[in-house]
């Protein structure tokens, strides 16, 4: 801690991070041990976080992340979208296909930013807000590949999984804390051109760097 930082705020944020990393919640005693502070301090932290809806405690006394975190999380998408737009525009213009940034939302893939090329006669209509199962389409499959092979997920190609006659290519975002997502393109073609996969990976790296 430095003179410019708040110890109490730091501890509160650490509580939220600890709770976010567990599915079954934590007791006051468990939090006390992990934070290295006494139980009284933990009680005060939890009471404050509860007032703001960021933490809730179940009947057994275990603390969990509260629904207030979702309200904060909804504000993340515009920031992520803004950071990704330059790389998506470059990708769409270079490939001549609709480029998109897709994030995980539960068991679904959610397109949060879409850029269509300006110079093509036709392209796939793909809108921000479009959802599909993670296991269908290049965007979701790329995210799953990153879970299975975090060191070298590469890129993913698909054909006709979301729309007949449309091909997709996507690469996951790597090294962005707290965000699971992918960058990809969708095009009307029989096969994805060879250069598209590596180009999509470059765009995913650009977006990841912008979000770090």
Automatic annotation (TrEMBL):
IclR-ED domain boundaries: 68-212
Residues in HTH iclR-type domain copies: 6-67
CDD domains hit by this protein: HTH_ARSR (cd00090)
Pfam families for this protein: HTH_IclR (PF09339), IclR_C (PF01614)
Key words of the record: DNA-binding, Transcription, Transcription regulation
Protein name: IclR family transcriptional regulator
